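Aim 2, interim progress: modelling of the cobalt (II) ion-bound target.
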Amino acid sequence: MDYQPKSLPIITYGHPTLRVKCERVTEFNEELARFAADMFRTLHDNDGVGLAASQVDRRIQLLVVGVPQKDTEELLHIVVINPEILETRGSWDYEEGCLSVPELRDVVTRPEWIKLKYQDLSGKEHVLEADKLLARVLQHEIDHLNGVLFVDHLSVVRRALMNGKLKQLERENAKVCM
Ligand code: CO
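Predicted structure of the complex, ligand included:
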């Protein structure tokens, strides 16, 4: 593909698009492939391990991951479209952060293992079994496509500790929208 991917601006907490349920992708065309390339460029420019389309203000069910593989130094890159979690197992506590909720991190409990159905850029269906970090990132990004953020998983007490910073992010977004 002869295309120079560009880095897209990431929206943050308080932006309405982070709260919508994204639309299923129905057209698997060149434009979608270019968008996925832009998503990877944006992911790497921001040192992320996962990014959902809604985080760049695009309301479609597409996410990208770039996580270190278990046995090698290489990153595993996957484009995940129209994901559906079929099965989960176990429970794992792990500290999460989010490019759309800058500076805040906290421990979130999620299933340790998932079985996932998704489509690739050509529309072909895949079933993937993932555990640990890959399962974690996929669940975090799938949440994004449903308008859910990691802070929504925290207890009222933990969330209250973040309230000052979250309110500040909301105010910054309000300014941008004026
Ligand atoms: Co996130």
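The CA atoms of residues 103 and 133 lie 20 Å apart. The first strand starts at residue 50 and ends at 52.
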